[in-house]
Design a protein that fits this description.
six-stranded parallel β-sheet; 47% helix; Rossmann fold; 11% strand; 221 residues; alpha/beta; globular
Amino acid sequence: MVKDSKEKHYKHIAFDFDGTLADSFYLAREYYDLAAKDSGVNKLTQNQIEEMRSRKLNFKNAWKVIKDLDIGFVNLARLAKNIFEELLFNKERLKLFKQIPNVLDDLRKRDLKLYIVTYNQQQIVENTLRKFNCLDKFEKIYTLDLFKNKSEQLHELIEDYKINKDEIIYIGDEVKDIETAHKVGIDVLAVEWGYNSAKALKKYNPEYQIKKIPDLLRILP
């Protein structure tokens, strides 16, 4: 889906990481199920998962899901502990989506400059990219910073590389990514294979919205 038919030629592509390049959402679901089993808590139903995907990922909506589960404070504390342990001891299992390495290769062959702007940790991002021989595809990785949000990181990227805002696009899987890009004043491409549902993404009017990973090569010059 493209909001308008005007053709643009971007020179710089900034990617979100989790849910966009890396299959974090479904891995997180697996972690939750394992932690829930060890905590005496029910797994999330498919309806609950789709309800989550229809909402913005923030503390308010996360708390609503927790309240709806009605699991009690003790089980909630146990669940949180077990989820943290799953993340801590299984962080090396994070994988890129299968078609992403080939797409990144193709984009680099088109002389596009690639970057990552994410709230994930530098070491996790770099290790994951290195496993798939993709670390050298990116000019720079802007990762978790306690003093900067994503919009500030995008501003920093634009300033660091003296980029014209018409020549860069941000690619992400959440409605927050759309809001962030528009706050900075750049175009955004929303992908439907990550956290938020297609319907939720569309409400926030991204310049582009795609269903499949190979569609990146159709949209980008």
